[in-house]
Write a structure and sequence with these properties.
Layout (H helix, E strand, L loop, with lengths): L1 E6 L2 E4 L4 E9 L4 E9 L6 E7 L4 E3 L7 E3 L3 E3 L2 E8 L8 E9 L2 E3 L3 E6 L1
Parallel strand pairs: 2-12
Antiparallel strand pairs: 1-3, 3-9, 4-5, 4-10, 5-6, 7-9, 8-9, 10-11, 10-12
């Protein structure tokens, strides 16, 4: 099993920045990709950014040029990724979820990001 813990959400004004962190623990050897998804009220969960152990990354068109996902970094018994979010817009407001994929597909509990206009 893999457990994910996110942090770094909050309230920010439009144009501001936030950095989200996700730490995976447990059976981390099986993880070959990690990513961020988001879900706004009344909308489906959507991919924001994803990275693989081989360094391949992909982004939603709506965040390209503004968000950057880090590589997967191993620190002791955890694997960690970050999502740097710049030039935030009110439409980025959502609950952001970390996902890890491999032998298990795991989700974090989510962290709220609110961008005020």
């Amino acid at each position: 099993q893999v457990q994910l813990v996110e942090s770094g959400g909050g309230l920010v004004q439009a144009g501001g920045s936030l950095r989200l962190s996700c730490a995976a623990s447990g059976s981390i050897f099986s993880i070959n990709a990690m990513g961020w998804y988001r879900q706004a009220p009344g909308k489906q969960r959507e991919l924001v950014a994803r990275t693989t152990s081989g360094g391949y990354t992909n982004y939603a068109d709506s965040v390209k040029g503004r968000f950057t996902i880090s590589g997967i970094t191993r620190v002791n018994a955890k694997k960690i990724i970050y999502l740097q979010m710049n030039s935030l817009k009110p439409e980025d407001t959502a609950v952001y979820y970390c996902n890890a994929d491999g032998n298990y597909n795991a989700w974090g509990q989510g962290t709220q990001v609110t961008v005020s206009s």
